[in-house]
Write a structure and sequence with these properties.
globular, mainly alpha, 13 helices, 79% helix
Length: 267
């Protein structure tokens, strides 16, 4: 892999994993517009590990508190806000795991990797995000999240297995429609990404091992580092500015991106 390709693709993964703009839509652009070759399974594993490291590092204090209180609740200890949040994340992850397993077994995951589908979902779910940002009450803090709301967001996350939907975008959309503040919806979306990235990364590692692909460690380590740093910076500034700027800039960007993708495909 050329150095320029490595840097650009790792940055794309790091930035788009957590912004509501669809990583799958962006990852097809270099090949569609520039004719770049596929980055390969090993590189996919590396950049997913990088984004996982970033979100775990950013929310490390919250995760430690949740893990401690969850462990106590399992052994009969009192229920706390942190233990409930941990359980919400567990239950909300199941829909994506079940749906992802179904797509993998049936082969539909490969069948849906269509550039036209990605362009369409980028437009449709981008417009839906804008509607949620306009119509949601945006008043409920994360501390008031209920299990029912967490499950609804979890089912929305499962829809993101359709390429172009954007995992962060659809979970933000669901959270806003449920009345969460932008900050609360974003934080739960980021926390909910952790088990999903772990599951997706584990599946890719199994595929990598079974494929017996040669590993270029220098490229993989560079990909991990670049995607991790860019994802960490992305999370920090997104949370810092989301209440101030809202989500409409991302909605507009998605609509323009979808149109660009359609234009590239149809010309």
């Amino acid at each position: 892999m050329e150095t320029l390709h490595l840097i650009v693709l790792a940055l794309i993964q790091g930035l788009t994993e957590f912004l509501p703009i669809s990583s799958s839509a962006h990852l097809i652009l270099p090949s569609q517009l520039l004719g770049w070759p596929d980055q390969g399974l090993a590189f996919d594993v590396a950049v997913h590990l990088g984004t996982l490291l970033a979100v775990v590092a950013y929310f490390r204090q919250d995760l430690i508190r949740m893990l401690v209180d969850w462990s106590k609740s399992v052994t009969g200890g009192p229920s706390t806000q942190n233990s409930r949040m941990a359980w919400y994340l567990v239950w909300a992850t199941f829909p994506a795991v079940i749906f992802g397993g179904f797509l993998s077994v049936t082969g539909l995951d490969d069948a849906m990797r269509s550039a036209t589908l990605i362009a369409g979902t980028t437009l449709i779910f981008g417009a839906l995000l804008g509607w949620a940002d306009r119509r949601g009450t945006l008043s409920q803090p994360l501390e008031k999240l209920t299990l029912k709301q967490a499950l609804i967001i979890g089912f929305a996350q499962a829809i993101a297995l359709i390429p172009g939907t954007s995992r962060s975008g659809i979970t933000l959309t669901a959270g806003l429609f449920l009345g969460l503040t932008r900050d609360a919806a974003a934080r739960f979306s980021f926390l909910l990404s952790i088990p999903v990235i772990v599951a997706a990364g584990s599946l890719k590692i199994l595929q990598l091992v079974s494929a017996n692909v040669p590993v270029e460690w220098g490229i993989l380590i560079s990909g991990i580092a670049i995607s991790a740093v860019s994802a960490f910076v992305c999370i920090h500034y997104f949370l810092a500015f989301i209440n101030r700027i809202g989500l409409m800039p991302f909605v507009i960007y998605r609509l323009l991106l979808g149109c660009v993708l359609l234009g590239v495909l149809w010309l």
